[in-house]
Amino acid sequence: MLDRLRSLIGAENVLTGADMAPWCREWTGHYRWTPLAVARPANTAEVAAILRLAGESGTKVVPVGGNTGLNGGTYAEGALMLSLARMNRIREIRPAARVAVVEAGVVLEAMHAAAAEHGLAFPLTFGAKGSATIGGVISTNAGGSNVLRYGTTRALVLGVEVVLADGRVMDLMGALHKDNTGYSLRDLVIGAEGTLGIVTAAVLKLVPAPRAYATATLALSSLDGALTLLNRLQAETGGAVEAYEFMPATYMAKLAQHRPDLRQPFAEVHPVTVLVEVGATAPRDATPGPDGALPVVTHLEAVLAEALEDGALLDAVIAQTEAQRREMWARREAAAEITFTAPVLVDTDVALPLDRLQAFLDAMTARLAALDPGATELVVAHLGDGNIHYTAYPSRDDLALQVEIRAAVAEEAVGLGGSFSAEHGIGRSKLATLQAHKNPVALDAMRAIRAALDPTGVLNPGKTVV
Amino acid sequence: MLDRLRSLIGAENVLTGADMAPWCREWTGHYRWTPLAVARPANTAEVAAILRLAGESGTKVVPVGGNTGLNGGTYAEGALMLSLARMNRIREIRPAARVAVVEAGVVLEAMHAAAAEHGLAFPLTFGAKGSATIGGVISTNAGGSNVLRYGTTRALVLGVEVVLADGRVMDLMGALHKDNTGYSLRDLVIGAEGTLGIVTAAVLKLVPAPRAYATATLALSSLDGALTLLNRLQAETGGAVEAYEFMPATYMAKLAQHRPDLRQPFAEVHPVTVLVEVGATAPRDATPGPDGALPVVTHLEAVLAEALEDGALLDAVIAQTEAQRREMWARREAAAEITFTAPVLVDTDVALPLDRLQAFLDAMTARLAALDPGATELVVAHLGDGNIHYTAYPSRDDLALQVEIRAAVAEEAVGLGGSFSAEHGIGRSKLATLQAHKNPVALDAMRAIRAALDPTGVLNPGKTVV
């Protein structure tokens, strides 16, 4: 098998032994494995040939992008890993049609830079943007900080090229905003974690890059107050709020502890801190006025002043320079780093209907106290999407307790009409939760579809649905 | 079978003979059929029971909503039709979460009215809104006039309840903006034309209702000029353009001929007429200024004045009253009516990448002239979506010629990277076109998925993919 693979894509592109080290663990170190080998194909035809070879030899194949996942989605014990890193070409940017045609291995940050050269933006963004690849974001339907305005990956991908388990290439590379020619196979493949096919290329939707931002850090007394203010900001800006990131007191305390370099935004710690960013595409909002101020900033200031006046807001600070804006974002982007500071933790990623967010947090505080009175919590949220990253730190190293806490989070979320995996997906770590909480008819439908498209089970075994 | 059906849902809800008349034809009359019967279930449990009964008796089932389709999607010769008209309850509207929970039989216009009571909007809209139902718009992934700002149906449906072919109920009724718990079965069912399951209920996304509109009719010299102006308007309004409807000279001439009551907007006929509408959600744009004018209107006037000045625009008229706005819309909404005026016509619905629209129209004019020098064309388009409704009127009643023209339209669209069915779907009429132009691997994948979810072929046979 490996010899045939070497002759197919070149020996230098088949890594084994110590050369595979970077692909033998998830970045957090939580999952570790030893693959059969790591193949680095150069193009779609090579991916197809590898899958045909894998099918013939009964080899399992696990695709990998930037290795920034959190659910063991690339666990590959004994399997052939397929890294798309060499397929990193931006084939074409068509500014008039506002699309980019790219290969799966393009790093998200490189895509941002390429779009910016045309005054456009690919607005999907999150902490791991420097490593995460387009193939990975598509396979996980990645979310991040700008979902509020631009949607998740699914809303930003117009077309995909997918190699099926049997090596056939499914070309769905349309650059179209409307296409009702049968089932939306594109939407099915997006978020399928490489279990239905290997994404090799995509047509991405670009948007006008904001000409200016108004960014502020807000202090509020409650989550519901923050949501009410968000609706007000959305109306006032015509839906131009790009990010609305929720950081409660527990988050700010942990930030102060682990990143004292990132100063606290206010002299005192308020119950709720929010990072808000408004993006202005209109020249009328992004051209400095007679006083030298940007109208988008002046407008946000006026709306926030009104909210301070009528008590909707406790305090606010607006970024006056790009450095101040970067500092505000650094506080939020430190989330992954400050979450994984303790050796024992239960990190989760839930979504709730917007009118049930506070109920979930209240329920979890009570549940956690009942399960482990000494435990602490850390919460950070993409509030406008109803997406909460809830982390519990048990007071003792007890695997059974961790399992109980994780189950409680899923149960409370699902009980309130929510999801136990908002943006991190299923991978390997949430299979049992999926089994417990997904509608059983939907589970069966998933299994039937997987079996229909990959009857011999070549692709990413033991992930997403079993 | 019919006796068991009558005892299941009540004899008065099983229509046969003359009582079935409204369900024996598509509204255009192009397709006609005689169903076995029409069943009108009252709830999801009855739909499930009917499907179990159909499975046992080998009866085919064709779901029907408002009967406003154009592709024979509800053709039901000898089959049991399943009308969801009685399931027309709006179960719940939750303004804080901005969602509505509704049954499949709710008429689109009723949904508009219900959302409006809360200062919100369900923004999907098109000519047939007075008859089309939520189940129908979901099953066809309907588009319409506001896709530019709000997306197609897929972007506006957060959750669905679906009865599978075997009568099991798949509950995917989440009110969530992020939910990565496995394959997006919701997206798979949306647009599947009732071939993968019967949609019985849905969770719809609501948006803030615009507080005011600025609506104008524009005269331009070219399509590409219209697109450039659209990009300018989008930037100037921060993406608040809700509709940008393209009506070339052929359209305006046909309108003058068939609907002289709808006055022409300009003294002379220009190459391109566009209906543009901007929706203002912000109080700052929708509160009359000192001069009594709405800022959203004043702003559009200013942008258009600038465009007139620099030659991007030939002429423009802005609606000053709601009656004038209605009149502008009536000219566009007459499209279906003025299209179906001739006994012999080839109506199509294609999508193109935005930078290939003019190339498509040029190619078709040449192709049509070559095929039938006496033929005429009618074009109307949702320009910002790249969606063109192209209709050819052959000079003679020749079925082979119609087939040739239809094939030429599909071929030119696909050749330019476009779609041969932007929003009308496949139904029965476009099966051959699908076969000819869809990627064969995608076709196989569709067949495999259909067989996996409906192994005995109960649901809507002979539609979407065969």
UniProtKB/TrEMBL annotation, chains A, B:
GO terms for molecular function: catalytic activity; FAD binding. Keywords: FAD, Flavoprotein. GO terms for biological process: respiratory electron transport chain. Its cofactor is FAD. InterPro entries: FAD-bd_oxidored_4_C, FAD-bd_PCMH, FAD-bd_PCMH-like_sf, FAD-bd_PCMH_sub1, FAD-bd_PCMH_sub2, FAD-linked_Oxase-like_C, FAD-oxidored/transferase_4, Oxid_FAD_bind_N. Residues 31-209 form the FAD-binding PCMH-type domain. The keyword Flavoprotein applies. The keyword Cell cycle does not apply. Gene3D superfamilies: 3.30.465.10, 3.30.70.2190, 3.30.70.2740, Uridine Diphospho-n-acetylenolpyruvylglucosamine Reductase, domain 2, Vanillyl-alcohol Oxidase, Chain A, domain 4. It comes from the Bacteria. Belongs to the FAD-binding oxidoreductase/transferase type 4 family. This is FAD-binding protein. It comes from Frigidibacter albus.
